[in-house]
Design a protein that fits this description.
This protein has about 450 residues and is an alpha/beta fold. The chain folds into three domains: about 40-175, Rossmann fold; about 185-295, Nitrogenase MoFe cofactor biosynthesis protein NifE, C-terminal (Rossmann fold, 3-Layer(aba) Sandwich), CATH 3.40.50.12380; about 300-435, Nitrogenase MoFe cofactor biosynthesis protein NifE, C-terminal (Rossmann fold, 3-Layer(aba) Sandwich), CATH 3.40.50. The protein contains 19 helices and 13 strands. It has helices at about 5-10, 40-45, 90-95, 100-110, 125, 130-145, 160-175, 195-210, 225-230, 240-255, 265-280, 285-310, 325-335, 350-360, 370-380, 395-400, 415-430, 435, 440-445, and strands at about 50-55, 85, 115-120, 145-150, 185-190, 215-220, 235-240, 260, 315-320, 340-345, 365, 385-390, 405. The strands form three sheets. It has a five-stranded parallel sheet with strand order 11-10-9-12-13, with helices on one face. Helix 4 packs parallel to helix 6 and helix 7 (about 160-175) runs parallel beside helix 10. The model is unreliable at about 1-20 and about 30-35 (pLDDT under 50). GO terms for molecular function: oxidoreductase activity.
Length: about 450
């Protein structure tokens, strides 16, 4: 039989990539599905609501997902990182687990008294068709606190889709369900796709000085009630995120809340953030207060950075730009007068090149595979004093005998974060341990 090649070939303009669904979301393949899933993304987004309980309707193995390993700063220890599961077994898969879920919700609420309960579907409970919405509704009628179903089974897609589904759940079931005791003209929400408790802790003191109230943090050390109040904010401040952009647009459409998308890392970023808030809120008085605060903070920061500039100027730092947190350190190292060598194991897109051009006045980058034998000669040739990267390149520093820094980007937000980054670089490079590491072994000295 002869096959018409023209008819069977794919038209690239009419077909979808193999790893995307019809909504443009990335779908895991059989080889990489174990890395993350939609369930993981939903948990990552909602677990930082610290006074709510999070119940997983599925096998006990799902409670060991990656969300438990993420940094979750919390001001409430009662439910912090406590995991709940219905522990579905074979009999539940055969006969259904909805009644078991309803019983688990009631027991959980009576024992721990959370402000709300988020109930997550998993691959198993979704495949057998358990009605978690019905179970949540029946449990609510008995106990009277909000029970929110989260439809995010792992097979739905990758982690990014789970983050989006969690945001849609908040808009549909939580935001707008309660009213704050009072409102002010300067109420804002801060929104991010990850737990931003660490980042917001550096920003809140600045906003409090200006009389700006953060009504809701979505999410990061958040309380359930503040999420309910989020519809009364005058402005949504989005930490740049393609995933949550749709979320803020939905809030704008449903609640008429404008939004801005501004990062909060680096001196220029935080200055632009404060000015953008004042512009959007439309208050000349606030704009004047912000200008005074910016001048005060920048002057104080410059004085404190002088010591670190003297100690770190002309030092060479290699930064792996594959990690988002490392990008934050490029600007900090550049402002300290350090020589920055960007390292990447992949070709840069135009957006990355533009960022490098903006910060370093060049877009050259060292391209290398992850094989150590290719990167170590580059380190030795440039006499690198510090490597900033994720843990996947940590073994490089053992062979090269240079300091290594794996940073947590949350800690370097705001003006205080810029100073913290400089302090971290200084203490890492000048740690006394490196003098010992570079010494010859006693038996080598004898020879």
């Amino acid at each position: 039989m002869k096959i018409n090649q023209e008819n069977t070939s794919r038209n690239p303009h009419n077909s979808m990539p193999d790893n995307e669904d019809r909504f443009g979301m990335q779908v895991p393949s059989a080889l990489d599905a174990h890395e993350d899933c939609a369930f993981d993304g939903a948990m990552l987004t909602l677990v930082p609501i610290i006074d709510a309980a999070h119940l997983i309707h599925g096998p006990s193995g799902c409670i060991n997902n990656a969300w438990g390993n993420n940094s979750n700063l919390s001001s409430d220890f009662r439910l912090h990182k406590i995991r709940f599961t219905t522990d579905m077994e074979e009999s539940d898969i055969i006969f259904g687990g909805a009644k078991k879920l309803q019983k688990a919700i009631i027991q959980l609420v009576r024992r721990y008294q959370p402000s709300a309960v988020f109930v997550y579907s998993t691959c198993v409970s979704a495949l057998i068709g358990d009605d978690i919405h019905g179970a949540c509704k029946d449990a609510y009628e008995q106990i009277g606190i909000p029970i929110i179903p989260v439809d995010s089974p792992g097979f739905a897609g990758r982690k990014n889709l789970g983050i989006r589904l969690a945001g849609e759940t908040l808009i549909e079931h939580v935001i707008g369900t309660a009213e704050p005791e009072f409102t002010t003209p300067y109420d804002i929400n801060i929104i991010s796709e990850y737990n931003m408790a660490g980042a917001v802790s550096n920003i809140l003191p600045l906003l409090e000085k200006l009389g700006i109230r953060v009504l809701a943090k979505i999410t990061g050390d958040s309380h359930y009630k503040e999420i309910c109040y989020a519809h009364r904010a005058k402005l949504n401040v989005l930490i740049p995120s393609q995933i949550m952009l749709k979320f803020v647009k939905k809030m704008q459409h449903k609640f008429d809340i404008p939004y801005i998308e501004v990062p909060m890392y680096g001196v220029d970023d935080i200055t632009q953030l404060l000015k953008s808030i004042a512009t959007k809120l439309g208050s000349p008085e606030l704009e004047e207060r912000i200008e005074n605060l910016i001048n005060e903070e920048v002057n104080n920061l410059s004085e404190k950075l002088n010591f670190y500039k003297l100690q770190l100027q002309d030092k060479t730092v290699m930064i792996d730009i594959a990690d988002f947190g490392s990008w934050i350190m490029i600007e900090s190292a550049n402002n300290l007068g350090m020589k920055v060598i960007p390292l990447s194991c992949r070709k840069l897109n135009q957006e990355d090149k533009n960022r490098l051009k903006q910060w370093l006045d060049r877009d050259e980058v060292v391209l290398a595979n992850e094989r150590l034998e290719e990167i170590i000669p580059i380190i030795n040739e440039n006499q690198v004093d510090l490597l900033i990267a994720s843990d996947r390149l940590k073994s490089l520093t053992f062979q090269a005998k240079i300091p290594f820094l794996n940073i947590n980007s949350e800690l370097y937000a705001g003006y205080a974060g810029v100073l913290a980054a400089a302090r971290e670089i200084y203490t890492t490079i000048y740690s006394p341990v490196w003098q010992q590491v570079r010494k010859s072994a006693p038996w080598e000295e004898i020879e």
